[in-house]
Structures are given as C-alpha cells and as structure tokens.
Amino acid sequence: MDIHLSYLVDLVCWIKDIVVAVTRENMEAMKQIIQKYQHKRISLIEAGVTRHRSIFNGLKALAEGQSNSNLSKPEVVIIHDAVRPFVEEDVLLKVVVAAKEHGAAGAIRPLVSTVISPSADGSLDHSLDRAKHRASEMPQAFLFDVIYEAYQQCSDYDLEFGTECLQLALKYCHTKAKLVEGSPDLWKVTYKRDLYAAESIIKERISREICVVMNKKEDTDHVGHLLEEMLKIELNDVKVTPGTLCHTGRDVQHIIFEQCYNFVCVNDTTSDFQETQKLLSMLEKSNLSTLYSVVVVSVHFLDFELTPLCQTMEKLLQIRELAKKVKERNILLCGLLICCSQDKQKLQESLRQGAIIIAALIKERNSGLIGQLLVA
What we know:
Elements: H1 8-11, E1 18-22, H2 27-36, E2 42-46, H3 51-64, E3 76-79, H4 89-102, E4 104-110, E5 116-118, E6 124-127, E7 134-143, H5 144-153, H6 156-161, H7 165-173, E8 178-181, H8 192-206, E9 209-214, H9 218-234, E10 239-244, H10 250-257, E11 262-266, H11 274-286, E12 294-302, H12 309-316, H13 319-327, E13 331-339, H14 344-364, E14 373-375
Parallel strand pairs: 1-2, 4-8, 9-10, 9-11, 11-12, 12-13, 13-14
Antiparallel strand pairs: 3-7, 4-7, 5-6
Helix pairs in contact: 3-5, 5-7, 9-14, 10-11
C-alpha cells in the first residue's frame, strides 16, 4: 500500500494497519517522522522502482507478515496515493463496502478537460466525449485475495509501465470493479504550487472550531460572553465552543480530545497570565500540537480611562517570553488587549474589533505574530 495518511489510524478506527512504501534513501527520515508525530500501527517497507512494484511489495508484506511486526492478511485492502492527502472517511468506507460486495472498487471523478489522441505528426487524431468517461482516482479497495492474485500473475510489463490497479483485477482475476463517485478533495499534490493550495486547505480545516476558555470570574464573565457572541457573528462558518478551566480541566480536556486547534483564553482584568498558563500546560501535555500548530490568543480586558495602558504594558509584555517557550511545542501564542469601556457602544466596537483580530490570527496562523500584543 502506498499510503502517507498515517493520521487515519487515529481518526478511522476500523483501519487496522497502514503500510507505507518508502524508498531506501528516505527510510530513516520516515522513521523519524513516525516517531516525532507518535503515529501508531505504521509499518514501513522498501518501495519498488515503479508504482506497481511498490504496491506489490506492500501486499507481500501483508500476505506473508513480518517477524518484527503484527501485520496479518486483511479481508479488504485499501490502496491510496501519498499525494492525495485530503481523502475523507466516507469515501474510504464506500470503496471498502463496494469491494466486499464486488471484489474491487475505486473512486472516480468527472473529467474536467477533454482527452484527445494526437497523430504521429502531432495533429489531432480524435477526441473522447468526456461526458461518457471518468477520471480514475484513489482510494481503491479490493478483496485482498483478488488483488494479491492479480499482482502475482501480472507481467513484468504491467509492473514497469502500468498504473491502474483496477485494470489488473479485471485482466487477471476477471473482477469488475464497482465505481464510486469521489469528492473534489481527491486531487493530487503534484507540483510545487499545489503545496500552497494544500496549506490553504489545511488552515481552513483546522480553523473551523474555536474554543473560548473563560475563568468564570465576575469581572470577565459578562464581557467574555459578549466576545463569544461577536466571534459567532464574525465567523458564521466556524463553530465557537465555550470551555472552562475548572480544577480538573475536564471541559477543555474534552475539547482538546476532539482536536480543536484554536483557543481564545479570556483572562481577568488584572491582566494576569495565570489562566493562559494553565491552558498552555494542558495543551503541552496533550501533544495536540505535534501534527498541526495550535493557535492560542490570550485576551485581556482593561478600561483605558480608569487604568492607563502604560501601567499594564510591562506585565503584558511577559507574553513574549511565554510565546517563545511554547513555540518549541508548535503552539502559536499571541496577546490581545481589549478596551473594556463603561460605554456600551465603545465596548461593542472594541469587542467587534477584537473578534476580527482573533479571526485573522486563527485563519492566517502567521508565525510572525507570535508573542505580539495586539490592541483592539
């Protein structure tokens, strides 16, 4: 199996093992990645010189087992490309269910360009009606015995120049694959420019939920809830979840377990970082930030008319050292000071500006703003 999505073992509980085909020169680097991100149930095998030879090596590892692993032959095997990182669980489930019934199944997508056949002199020979054809995508799933037998029978020419696993199952095992409509997210990260698109998709996905953590003190409870409502207005496509830092931290621990990567910690008006430090401690222990960066916005309320800003700046600038420390754990910490005016209109405007700033910090995830104290 040519699979890079090792996080699937954690998110899709019914996947038992993932076998990754890796070139010899990249084997140590892959081992370090598995160790760094604490991936479980990942087995590495040496890749072949072609796509089909890599897949065959993975199938042999599952069929024969390995003395230093717990691999065993599965009923159904999923084959997927490392360059398609955004496959969803429902697509995986659909191809597996179809494969159990039909012996083989694969995801397909409509063609976005017309396929043409050129003649020997470089002229147009003919074109295909794209309404009648589909693009073959990954993932594909097979009854293990079907695809393993197909690879055992296929020719050297197939192993060297072939690309379509479903065709091998049809050619050598007479198994007609069931075609399943795939999602638009099955596109391939092929060129350097695709990395920017992939980064944008990841940022969008992990920005879908924000946890607003409040210490439930009287002086911040009211404005904290107002800020929460402002966030819901400014980010109407994002789920805003309230949480509290109780003695056991159960509320926030549950949210962390659900893999929320964005936290707004509302501190009291004395500008103390105590609540933020509690949250950061929980995040560090959770290892949530090992795969993706976690954004934490430490919010502090202050009435500028009653307390001059200069009197609190020295204390608030402690955030720089705190942010530098947690950056090593891939936690991006920023500070936000909101004017907590007695004037309701001014308070509403400050909270609205604060919500806009928070939204930008979470969506952009700009490491250049780590440790900065922003003022709304």
